[in-house]
Give the backbone structure.
Amino acid sequence: MFSIGSKEDNKNYELDLKGVNNLRGLALDMIVNAGSGHGGIILSAAPIIYTLYKYHMNLDFNNLNYINRDRFILSAGHSVPLLYGIDYFLELLELDDLKKLRKIDSKTPGHPELGITPLVEFTSGALGQGVGTSVGCAIASKYLKEKTNNLINNYTYVLCGDGELEEGITYESLAIAGTLKLNNLIVLVDCNNVTLDSNLNDSSCENLKMRFEAINFNVIECDDSVKNINESLELAHKSDKPTVILVKTIMGLYSKYEGTNKAHGMVPDSEDLLNIKEKLEIHEASFTVNNEVISEFKKEVEERSNKHLKEFNNKYQELEDKSLVDKLINHEVSYNLNEIDIFSEEKSLRENSKDLLNKIANDFELLIGGSCDLSSSCKTYLENLGDFKENNYKGRNIYFGIREHAAGAITNGMALSGLRPFVSTFLAFSDYMRASIRESAIMKLPVLYIFTHDSITVGPDGPLHHPIEQLPSLELIPNLKVYRPFDLNELIGSYIDIFKNNNPACLVLPRDSKNISAYTKSSEVANGIYEVIRNDTDDFINLIANGEELGIVLKVSKNLKEMGIDNKVLSIPCKKNVSNIKDLLNNQRTIAITLANPVYFYDITNEVIGINDFGKSGSKEELLDFFGFSEEKLVTQILELLKK
Amino acid sequence: MFSIGSKEDNKNYELDLKGVNNLRGLALDMIVNAGSGHGGIILSAAPIIYTLYKYHMNLDFNNLNYINRDRFILSAGHSVPLLYGIDYFLELLELDDLKKLRKIDSKTPGHPELGITPLVEFTSGALGQGVGTSVGCAIASKYLKEKTNNLINNYTYVLCGDGELEEGITYESLAIAGTLKLNNLIVLVDCNNVTLDSNLNDSSCENLKMRFEAINFNVIECDDSVKNINESLELAHKSDKPTVILVKTIMGLYSKYEGTNKAHGMVPDSEDLLNIKEKLEIHEASFTVNNEVISEFKKEVEERSNKHLKEFNNKYQELEDKSLVDKLINHEVSYNLNEIDIFSEEKSLRENSKDLLNKIANDFELLIGGSCDLSSSCKTYLENLGDFKENNYKGRNIYFGIREHAAGAITNGMALSGLRPFVSTFLAFSDYMRASIRESAIMKLPVLYIFTHDSITVGPDGPLHHPIEQLPSLELIPNLKVYRPFDLNELIGSYIDIFKNNNPACLVLPRDSKNISAYTKSSEVANGIYEVIRNDTDDFINLIANGEELGIVLKVSKNLKEMGIDNKVLSIPCKKNVSNIKDLLNNQRTIAITLANPVYFYDITNEVIGINDFGKSGSKEELLDFFGFSEEKLVTQILELLKK
């Protein structure tokens, strides 16, 4: 244990101990009142959150969305009653809110939820996500600092438990932070040495100090006194590297389960509560906090924050070009894509996508992103816009490395900080980042996921590279719009619709299709589905498809017509944009065709030709034939269906 | 760079260099002939695979499934032409097979696929999976060593690239290996310092030596000579900890892209191929390997392996109780569950599940598993069977820690080594391990995933703890059977069906339902769907549900009957077991009810009452009401549907 040394300062640490204990007591009152919660971390992590807010966080009480505020990401979401307690200390929540903890439609849900409670910056509760997202906030801050002549300049703090550091996403994302030398990132670890099931060392022998030094972190260890945590934070601010502060705490301090895993989900009974409060030296009634604690806490935060705000406002006034900052202030993250004259029919969809992305990026500074080591395959490199590196934070291309999960969480953080980020990988590997995509969707963040190599047409790389279930699986996620354009027209339409709106979106592209059709329309993407080939007779069948397979279906449609089977072809470039398709289907028999699992279209019709097995290694043509999607075999499949 | 020192031995390293270069040339011939592949790693990793097989791997040429063979997991699946080359050296593949690389239905797919090619132990190509799975093989070997009086005693080797080590799953799984001191695990890293997009240091500043020391690994660094790799492996065998050998190699050695990321997916053109082969001193025609190389290689492997086999057979003969070993030899991993008298109607489904799991485990030694730090919540702890720990490899409970992704990959490795493993976490967090579940499904491994807390009925922990899309999303994965029992009868039926068969399976359970119905039948789980409440009139509606919501539907059914709406209730405890439901539905109107995304049932009916949004924090009762699933609101919803 490295001690910070006793620096002289004028802080009233005695009052702070009382404050920390009041915070503990208040949070315990909340979970006792709610009947469920996580008493263990409430008792261990209280001094960390208390110290951070009292002595470091810069906020604007009149505008909690103040763009240069420090960010605190509570990755250990189950400790949220502590944050609600801080809200109460700062008069941002009422006692009544605290009493509604974990009740429906309260301001105090069981885990932090973005948009519901003051000071909550992130919806957490799935471990590791917040750590990844904090790296994104720090990246965004570094980028915006460069773009705003140092006006934006803040810290990102994240709190997690030492058990949470077992999650792979924490290694992935913090390795990126270390590589990028993000010294505006401070990771606070509640080292209670206990997990839900047992002692941490039953599942981990890891030397945390060595782990973090291996990835270029400044490592500080301290005990759980406000003084030492505070001095650790001050040291962290002087570092040229990201800092991790390993705070030695005691899980379930003073409770009958102190120091054991039984404290994790503990809600103390009345006897234990009394006992704990006695040891905490709290003698007030439930839900009562010492007046001096509260007034001193608020005063300290306000005075510091006001000074900070004044500096910001002065700098803002001096700023010559305010356009970017004003966009951030107004949270304008949409972009109007027009004058599209850059495409080439000779190029693949992926290559045209690259040109479109580059066109937007050149004009729209909030667009920044990177790839999970596949920018050259997914065609998402922003040419001539530089690489985001330790010595070039204005660069626009981020090297996430082969770290899909972190990339998802990091782009979430970038979006939370006002950017419009993108990330690319192969569709098959979207599985690796699924938990982070879910976070984008829950928080409705404008993250663009570019997933290429979208079906068995990937060819010889085989089943692990062949998405079958990924397309319908992404479609299942609420709020997430999945675009799967067939050709260049629909690709343009997808980009227009994605950047016009602020939804989390997946753009799904094939490996090497280069279609362009005279019948497709970019303007129809916004409607989700439309007729590509009309049919004016009364008796016809509908053929529905999207993406690369629409090209096969268009040929099949012609074949069927020649056989006397009238049909209409509908393209469905974005299922979530569809509002009503009844008129389009006109009560006619409808057959949908997809290279994905047929479930993808069962909400539209019960006649779906799809693939309900894994892919295999072979050429694209061999595979299309094997799975029954050659033009000839598809005609046969449809004729078979029609016989039924 | 740590040099191994020059130990005297009688190996013909000069011939070995020729052998390595022949292997490189042969693998290049394969990808040139195929027209695609990954030339970079072929040129860098060849000496590693060559040395490992020539001097260390113990095989049985007459029985490649020999249970005590050493395992080689090729995690860097894109280097597979090298392994096919070894197959050729050992006369396990013909030249003709090599010429069919990447063609459909060949023995030589683009990435390794289990069951298709000799020596391939694992379907790889999604980075990081093989590393995780190798830890599972090593765990299985340690366990079986204890259970077979040291008869089973082998090494697991895994090859990955240094870029692949960016994947979070590699940190998670290797931290487990270090904690468990699995000294039978040797990780070979092809340190070529290049990834697909760029130099490794663009995305990673990590000090690998420090990283591995932090997790209790023996770290060896060496160059890419056969001599040094061999001596490193010998050193590794003496370690009491798992070993990582960091082999310094050169990506795309001798090619025009040598040492750069452009070498990654390189297929050399004819000029470059000539040039490379000249530097490799290969003067033979394509697809030709020096005779002496091949004969010496095969001789060395055979002599060593035969000695190994002889020892094994002697020990086997001496073994008193051969039953477990014979089960392994015959790959008998099913278990006949009967005499079920242990359940209690007073307990929740989770608790009864625990009793069933414990009952099986007590009788069935191949069953071993663990939890992602949620054994006490998922109720999957095996009582009195000990913990699998460094000093107790016969323990049956593995502490995976909060490492879902690794847990999935590790259980895959355990299943590959003949065990019947299980792993548990909350259903919402199945997203974290999805890529590993996909591997179970592709390889059809008998892994049991126990996912509890299966819907919004989790209550106050909020949306990140509420599975909505996870149930249909898992159902989308081919080969994976998802069981969602309603009550104790169906729970028993699920366990019977799961252990009778050898499919990868998910058992999905609610948080605290404790239903038992007089109408449900355990025997019907094998049929997937069945009538719980019959209706003998001709005019009725079908109500379909599973899991906890079936309880609500049973009440609703009664309500509807009282209103004069005849109905039949069908339970569907395992969708993938359903073969034909037409007769059951009897052409009547069918309404399905689910707390998951309605897509879950659209393959059965287009009238589904489900949840197409994220959950929220609140009590179970509040949430059921909010989402329209209280008894009263569900009746209303059904009546509304029937009006249409």
